[in-house]
Amino acid sequence: MFTAILRPASRHICCVLLGLVFMGLLSGCLQVQPYVDPAMRTVEYEALKRPAKPRPVVLAASFQVNGAAKPAVDEQVRTAVEKTFADSGIYAPVQDGDSKTEQITIVVNDLGNVGGAVASGVGTGLTMGLAGSQVADNYVMTVEYHRPGMPVIKKEYKHAIVTTVGVHSAPENLTPMPDIASAFARVVEDMTLRMLSDLQQTEGK
Description:
Helix content: 25-40%
CATH architecture: 2-Layer Sandwich
Number of strands: 8
Oligomer: single chain
């Protein structure tokens, strides 16, 4: 259980669980439930203009926690972005482009209060999960879009994962996700869809 939960990007949740481990109370009875805000999905695939064939693009994707690079999570970001590209039919990432190839650089930054997450996790552990915890991972995706012969376009998008640990009421108006990895993929997808919509609107001007 512990290994599976540490795989996703959420540093807050890792800290909560570390607090439980230090107390020697981590067990299968503690429920970890992530949620996302459906209101943050402001663009659906149907709203995008699907070209006759995907355009090649050189994609760079990375992950940070409070501005510090975390290369171990880069692949999760890239996988979620590439899937959104494929489902939209707009872009097809390539390894090497030429002078005419578009470039998109994406950085997802987890802005977390790690100290608060650890304290929350220890409190949950002391009560064997009866006093549940709720933590939020706030994400900022920064995007740089390079199109040959055009000025660089910079965009920023925000999203969050709210996770309850132990016995805790469900947050209002949020959608439960199967696990943290699924929640993170959904968050990246939502922000990528907004980016694609913005880029298409920019091209239309």
